[in-house]
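ESCALATION

Customer reports they have been waiting on this structure for their group meeting. Please prioritize. Original submission:
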Amino acid sequence: IGIIAAVVLVIAAFVAFKNQQAYEVEINNLRDANTEKVRTTGELEVQQKRFKEAESSKESHALNLVETGKDRDTAIRKYDDLKKELATLEQTFEDKRGEIDSAKDVLKDLPSKDVLVPKINRLKNQLVEAQEGIANEESRIAKLNQKNQDCEQKIEALSQIIGDYAQGRSLASMSTSIRSIYSGWGFVILDGGDNDGVVPGSFLEVVRADEVIAKLKVTAVEAGRAAADIIKESMAPGEALRAGDAVIPEQKAEKPDDKISFSAR
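Update from on-call: job pushed to the front of the queue and completed.
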């Protein structure tokens, strides 16, 4: 009986020891789980803050698009006014030319030199004045033509910007690079933002040594930086993104309706 009791006590002690070890393991697991919970909660708060900033940026872009449209309308109105003024000056030019032709006809049909000399001198003076007026009008027409060309260039540039924003494309002049990479979350942070022509929802290309190694989709834009998801299926085999990699707008063949055009009438 004593031996059996001793064996039972030894077994009980061994079981208690094992239970103690298992208890300590579970305590450590619980402590690690609480730590992970705190970290995950912090990450969630950061993502929620980024989401709110993205919503605010979206509203700002919408307001900018409205202002750009207003600038375009103003430029078109100025263009139309210049067209009307140009037409008026051309008509004035033709009237002056008619006066010169009439004066030449009068000189040709007058027979007497003694009578014609004073009239000729007077008509010469009128002719000189008319020619000076024509020269002045031609100079004004040239200046108006230059203004007209400037307005057309501004309208074309504004139309291109509006077209890019409306179709969710980053501006063609946009050029930036990767600031940091979060591979576990599947996104990167770019050095450029709204000030550099990055547009929310647009697709970008990561270029290294003149070759496209991956594509990105912009999810959030601020004034000086932007966030973009990594399109995993676009990654070149054996390649990995690095900080400093160049980023440009996605290169696509332009469709006929990709631009908004205005014809002068």
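Sent to customer with the following note: Residues 2-109 form the longest helix (108 residues).
Escalation resolved.
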